[in-house]
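Q: How would the structure tokens look for this protein?
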Amino acid sequence: MSFTNSLLGFFCLENTVLLLHHTTKILFKVPWVLNPTYM
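A: Here is the predicted structure in token form.
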């Protein structure tokens, strides 16, 4: 049971990290799209 719980926790953590990563990528892309000279 604890093995399944740790596995679920690991997947939750991985999903959260992926979500944060994609959000950061989008946030960094937005000013660049709005102002292409911004580098």
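The mean pLDDT is 83.

The two ends are 50 Å apart (CA to CA).

Upvote if useful.
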